[in-house]
Amino acid sequence: MKQFIIRRLLIMIPVFIGISMIIFGLIHSTPGDPYITMLDPNITEADREAMLNSIGYYDPLPVKYIKWIERAIKGDLGYSIRYKEPVADVISRRIGNTLLLSVTALVLSVLIAVPLGIVSATKQYSVFDYVATILALIGLSIPAFFFALGLIKVLAFDLGIFPISGIETTGANYTGMKRVLDVLHHMALPIIVLTFVQTASLMRYTRSSMLEVIQQDYIRTAKAKGLSERVVIYKHALRNAMISIVTLISLSLGGLLSGAVLTETVFVWPGMGTLVYQAILNRDYPLVMAGTMLLALCVLFANLLADIMYAVVDPRIRYE
Amino acid sequence: MANNIANKSSNISKVQGEEGTSLWKIGAKRLIKNKLAVFGIVVLSILIILSVLAPVITPYDRDETNLTNTYQKPSKEHWLGTDELGRDVFTRLIYGGRVSLSVGLVSTSISVIIGVLLGAIGGYYGKVVDNIIMRIVDIFMCFPFFIMAITIAAILGPSIWNVMIISGILSWPSIARIVRAEVMTVKEREFVEASKALGLTPIEIIFRHILPNVLAVVIVYTTLGIASGILSEAGLSFLGLGVKQPQPSWGNMLSAAQNLRSLRLHWWLWVPPGLLVFITILSINFLGDGLRDALDPKLKH
Amino acid sequence: MKRKLFSLLLVIAMISTLLVGCGGDKNATNNTPSNDAVKGSDKSVVRMALWSAPAGIFNPVLLGDDYDGAVAGLIYEPLVEMNPKFEFESGLAEKWEISEDSKSITFYLRKDVKWHDGEPFTSEDVKYTFEFISDPGYAGNKFSQISAISGANDYKEGKSESIKGIEVIDDHTIKITTDEVFAPFLDKIAGIDVIPQHIWSKIEVSKALESTDILRNPVGTGPFKFEKFVPDQYVTVVKNEEYWAGAPKIDSIVLQVVNQDTAQAQMLSGEIDFMQLSSMNPDDLALYEDAGIQIQEVFYTSFQQMGVNVRNPLLADKKVRQALTYAIDRQGIVDSLLHGHGNVANTTYPPFFWSYPGDEAINTYDYSPEKAIEILTKEVGWEYKDGKMYADGKPVKFSLVYPTGNKARELSAPVIQENLKNIGIELDLQIMEFATMVAKVKDEKAFDLFLLGSGIGADPDVRNNFSTEAIETGSNYMGYSNPELDKLFEEGVKYIEIEKRKPIYFEAAKIINEDMPVIFLYNWSEGRAIAPKLKGVQSFAFGNYYKVNEWYIEK
């Protein structure tokens, strides 16, 4: 097992380098530069060139990449062109907000989706199964941003139950419990959106993996041996189905993080998604690079986790 | 001896073929029994017919602006009213269907072609080839979709083709993994061993024997992929990087109405495209589900 | 197993809530932690909407974006300020005297002004501000604005220890001299916000952008003092009790980031007290009116244009550009896309500005596709048959690049496409993200036509847009050159008095109107939505904060 993990970690190195090279190449081939949008008539072309020179804009791409990776290995992610402060500082301020949203949504959707999926599977073709399946399909079919705007219109605008955007009441300077409640209040709508979408796919997945397990021979045997339905399903079947469900959960964390761009944009949530999106528009290369790499790394580790979990359960995989 | 081998070979393909057709037949029968899947097929067919026949159905020009007739409510002349430039919403909606549906189709085709090829090659050859391909898959799986899409869109510029390409090249890894896993199990089966023994080239084996066996999985994946292609286009349009005006797509029609004013006052601008995206994807999901139940032997009763 | 997993995830979620919950405060730079102006209900707070987060560079001569500017504008002040009538009023300088030869101005500074930290404000601060900008290590974008000062260039190149043209006469008198008469002197030089020497001289100018601590704890002389900056979310400023023109009547202002699509709801529900309206949609206005919200209409000196690449042989002839102008239903665009809040533009100056020569002096190119076709076929020699326009036997087709971002501009593109279709010209629309589009137009010059806003600011000197020199160094992306116009432009900046400049710019406006190096589309006005209780706001094209210390909340 140890060997397997070490091997997987070693494999991550070329993958990591590959990711960083592709992302670096793409980001630096976007047309324009960080200062091109300053159409201020007071800025002359010479000013612009001087500013570009100071950030190493005119270096050839491979040189830029080597410079970047050299510093990145030492833990120096560079200086944000727009925020004029270390990229690490900019990101550390945002990453918590994004995790807050995505982890909470993930936990909630697991809490909702797994039980629903199990019941749905054990009572296949029942009314409950149909209703749950159709609800899940609705969740999969509705564009997240559209759903979000609809919620804002009804719950925030018409009914005024929730704030429209942001992460806290600005200028209120709440502290302690009051502040936590305030943040929770602001979180509600984005959480509803993310959870609904996430629950939909997770529920369907739980249902089908449960179905798969239920139909396997050993479950039938267990049933034939006269074990009660309850014991069979919750003791034997669920345990096996959980493996693939947990795998999916770790995989979906990556998706949740990168898919947050849309939700964060709609709700003006100060997270990673909007940060990187704005950074791309501003051509803030060091920031885009670090932000994108961080998101990619999250996915990479989530995938690794999934692989390991799978291998723990199914020894054949290790020797693949 | 030679005769014998030839005989054996034809036997194999015959067995294969019979198994294949019967599987498809059973599948089709099962699919038709599935009410939701049939609903999906019917709705999708109607939508496809509508968008193909768009020029015949509507008397208006797609991009015809009329600045004196903006934001009109639905009426006899304009079934779904007019938009901010006085263009007929119904007309743009059915033309938009062309764009949205073809974005879904083409982007999925791109990802299926890349995914199936790489997955099959990796699964069949194994070893170094597989290792390299799987690392590429790992790399692509780690890319955050929207962020990469935004970056590529900035390079390529927004257009319908670029949306297809972006969505296609960012979503092939999952199909590659599925195909690879299937190929690896199919590879071990006797008929493939036999074909090898008969001296068929790997390409022949992959195309004639292995791919038909993973077709079921691919079809199911493709249906669902189309749905996510349409959703991605809508999302990209929302961020202003999708299909561009004046060409309508359901995604950019939706995002044009994203402000509260339109949400409040001009329901005819956002309800129809929103509803169509929803219904289309719902239908595709129904169909995909039905196909999975019908084609996946594991779920046989 | 299931329960364990859930509780684990739950714990993670709670921890991250706490982390975020505490994190915000820790990161916020807090100037006066005890002075919590917003909490008490008897304090008056005004909340203003920002569409995007300030970067946190609250130094008026270093900052590069509007949102930082919106913050700095409340904290810092210039020597002279422009008022809503486009006249100069005293700011930190109580009065000023222009020398006989118009080349130097003596500023008499106010004696009762203190920096927010209690230090007195003197002429040394003014001198330091200009030296800061002229420093070789200066990384901001204001130098070209003051480079006319005698000796500024020498100082920048390290050839001198001080700027020759800046002379401190005493603590509260300073004289600034330029080499040549510099017409926009008051606007460009005296309009620069002054920064405190005792704070910024502590660090090297070249390190200024890295001094996050100083950047994010700005000290100015203005009506409001900086209080708190929560990155990506909001900035709070509180009133300066000792403000020279009288302490502000409101206690604090919160500038907060909101989503432009949903801000309207926040305005209506009273969460926001002030925001810019990019659209004057009558439906919106009616809604605001019902809620008692005040609307101020602000007329801009800027215009939207369709730039023409005159390097394209088909577009090199001004007759073609004139015909295109006739072919576009610009009045229709103003009426429908701007809801009538704007006017068709025909030259680079808006009708209300002093350098506009008057409607009768210029051609107004009233919408007429027939006339367009007539010019193209009779005067240019193109051929029009079966609804298509041909030049030298080939169908005429142009590409139009335009950026995302401005709704009315985005929507005008398909209208222009339809309009040109009516005279048989095909237009290929290419919308792109702003930076990409500008790179295409500015660096690659890969376009026929482009849409972009442009402005004259407060001075009619538009050399940067239309002079021959600006093809290389400015925003003359069209590649347009007219020696006669160049000469007028040079002449125009030689006088400070408006009356002497008027005839020169009238002539320039007429030439631009005739040549149409860009096809002028429209001048527009935008709105400011102001909460019913907030009084005293006077927004105009160059600022929202005029006499902000006199704003008050009606009880």
How would you describe what is shown here?
- The complex is a heterotrimer of chains A (320), B (301) and C (555).
- With 320 residues, chain A is mostly helical.
- Chain A has helices at 2-28, 45-54, 61-73, 87-122, 127-141, 144-158, 176-214, 217-224, 229-267, 272-282, 285-313.
- Chain A is globular, with a radius of gyration of 24 Å.
- The two termini of chain A are 13 Å apart.
- Mean pLDDT of chain B is 82; it is low at 1-18.
- The two termini of chain B are 42 Å apart.
- With 301 residues, chain B is mostly helical.
- In chain C, 32% of the residues lie in helices and 22% in strands.
- In chain C, a hairpin with a 5-residue loop joins strand 3 (80-82) and strand 4.
- The relative contact order of chain C is 0.13.
- In chain C, strands 12, 13, 14, 18, 19, 20 and 21 form a 7-stranded mixed β-sheet that branches. Chain C has a 5-stranded mixed β-sheet with strand order 1-9-10-11-2.
- Chain C is α+β, with helices and mostly antiparallel strands and 555 residues long.
- In chain C, helix 11 runs antiparallel to helix 13 (369-380) and helix 18 runs antiparallel to helix 19 (498-515).
- Chain C folds into 3 domains: 5-75 and 222-273 and 531-553, Periplasmic binding protein-like II (D-Maltodextrin-Binding Protein, domain 2), CATH 3.40.190; 80-206, Dipeptide-binding Protein, Domain 1 (Dipeptide-binding Protein, domain 1); 302-524, Dipeptide-binding Protein, domain 3 (Roll).
- Chain C has 19 helices and 23 strands.
Keywords:
heterotrimer; B: 301 residues; mainly alpha; MetI-like fold; C: 555 residues; alpha+beta; D-Maltodextrin-Binding Protein, domain 2; 5-stranded mixed sheet; 19 helices; globular
Low-confidence stretches of chain B: 1-18
Question: What is the percentage of strand-forming residues of chain C?
Answer: 15-25%
* CATH topology-level fold name of the largest domain in chain C: Dipeptide-binding Protein, domain 3
**Portion in helices of chain B:** over 70%
* Number of helical segments with 4 or more residues of chain C: 19
**Can you tell me the CATH class of chain B?**
Mainly Alpha
- Give the largest interface pair and sizes: A-C, 71 and 77 residues
CATH homologous superfamily caption of the largest domain in chain C:
Dipeptide-binding Protein, Domain 3
CATH architecture of the largest domain in chain C: Roll
- Count of runs of 4 or more consecutive helical residues of chain B: 13
Q: Which structural class fits the helix and strand makeup of chain B?
A: mainly alpha
The CATH class of the largest domain in chain C is: Alpha Beta
CATH topology of chain B: MetI-like fold
Identify the quaternary structure here. Answer: heterotrimer
Write down the Rg of chain B: 23 Å
Separation of the first and last Cα atoms of chain C? 61 Å
Mean pLDDT of chain B: 82
Computed CA radius of gyration of chain C, to the nearest angstrom: 26 Å
CATH architecture call of chain B: Orthogonal Bundle
